[in-house]
Design goal:
The protein has about 550 residues and is α/β, with parallel strands linked by helices. Helices cover about 30% and strands about 15% of the residues. Among the domains are: about 250 residues, FAD/NAD(P)-binding domain; about 120 residues, FAD/NAD(P)-binding domain (3-Layer(bba) Sandwich), CATH 3.50.50. The strands form five sheets. Strands 1, 2, 3, 4, 5, 6, 17 and 18 form an eight-stranded mixed beta sheet that branches. A five-stranded parallel beta sheet has the order 7-16-8-9-12. Helix 1 runs parallel beside helix 13, helix 9 runs antiparallel to helix 10 and helix 13 runs parallel beside helix 15. It is globular, with a radius of gyration of 24 Å. The structure holds 3-acetylpyridine adenine dinucleotide.
Length: about 550
Amino acid sequence: MSEPRDEFDAIVVGAGAAGLYMLHRLREMGLTALALETGDGVGGTWFWNRYPGARCDVPSLEYSFGFSEELQQGWEWSEIMPAQSEVLAYLNHVADRFDLRRDIRFETRLSAATYDESARRWRLATDAGDVLSARFCVMATGCLSAPLRPDFEGLDRFEGDVHYTSGWPREGVDLSGRRVGVIGTGSSGVQCIPILAEQADHLYVFQRTPVYTFPADNAPLEPDFQSFVKANYREIRKKQRASDTGVSEHAQGALFSTPTRRLLDLSAVERAAALEDLGFGVVRSFADIRTETAANEIAVEMYREMIRRTIDDPLVAERLCPREHPIGCKRQVVDTDYFITFNRPDVTLIDLREGGIEAITPTGLRTTNGEYEFDVLVLATGFDAMTGALRRIDIRGRHDRTLASKWADGPRAYLGLLSADFPNLFTITGPGSPSVLSNMMHSIEQHVDWIADCIGHMGENGFDEIEPAVDAEDEWVAHVIDEADGTVWTAPSCRSWYLGANVPGKRRIFMPYTGGVKKYRAKCDEVVARDYEGFVFTRSGRTEPAPAGF
Ligand code: N01
């Protein structure tokens, strides 16, 4: 790599929610900081995933930053679950309010980061030709930001338009009078299918695995409720910190009440009554569904019964019935009008379990069972989650070791924050932290605060480098695996992205920390209280001037 032209105390990679707050904290500390962002705007996930129907599944009042009282009091949310456009507007507001854009380099993708051991600095190269250097590098690259591009035979010869949900055109896509094929029925597919059905002339849904989903029950936010939350934010943020998921008990919406009843305690008659009452909501209304196989199997059957009641055509209903994995092993999906969409005469469900995709043809798609013609192909095929964004950058630490090779058998990081041999390279919501199992805004804020405090501590003590001790890292990685072992998340039949099982060739290993936000935060705080137990700091011993702000 050639000599750097730009030198900073810290470089933040990504200008989504994590990158924005990190940049703000670093600047507040008086450090010189720059954020690199591939897109031409801020917002990360919410910048890219603009597909019709995209919506957050965490309540807006909780999916927001708590670090600034003025910010949380000043912003008005309109719905319980915010639409993509509203979260994106919020993040743009954050960028403006804290004047962050002047230190963000847009349309600039980090391609390589190499640790210069003698200078104790990271040297970074971007695909825009920048060569930069920084003492600290903070990866705010997101957990679901590396889209999977399935290698369908013939995809490049398709004569119509191809759109990924994860890169939907900003100006939208006019689907009127057009036949649309959509592949994928995860969260993105389930959210966009009802709207694509409304917009298109005919919609073909190609489903490989049926989904467990239940209604989002979204609604406009009651002004009184918004005022209540704002008046009690201090307490609500405290409750978020004391929870497993980073969401307080005050959150509105079916997703966030904690079930206490046990399905196995109900008689057959009571179960039938519960199904009448709860409908698809049965999948999350009983405490034992996640923990006991017998309860899970009963709930799966109740869920299938709901599908049969909802879908007019019995054959279509059977095709929509999940059979392959237990409820709760994959990320819970919530929807608006998903199942009733399959009663429309202009929607066709193709069950790929009956015949897989052979090829994309110039005019559509061929399965082993038949051929389908359409003008627009929508790919809602998911992400190389948690490690994908980092593995796509050529990151080299001590001894020229690459992060990709170190993580070939699964991610290795202490607390999900730093990885041995990669000094001063922090990861926000990295693998081994609660991240995707929690309210991301909450976990982002916790990580950014921890990293900023750590950098401050290094400045106060004249430390140049921090990295985990190998023992501490090994113990934490083992602990993360132990905590997940034997839970529904690691059921052998589960092919979730939590396990990396959706990516061909990726090592199957459970990546996020299942211990919950409260326990995780306590561990991070304890590590600091014990003088950063498990981390190693080094001093150069050379008399270099301290960087600005130290
Ligand atoms: O991706 P997914 P997603 N041939 O991996 C199918 C967050 N999110 O973008 O299940 C045929 O869940 C694949 O089939 P299968 C949320 O955390 C949140 O939908 O692997 N099909 C599956 O049906 C979520 O969990 C929100 O058999 C193929 C689908 O594509 C995460 O992002 C909204 C295939 C991929 O589903 C990812 O969701 C949206 C192939 N070759 C996303 N390859 C909210 O906040 C893949 N599939 C609500």
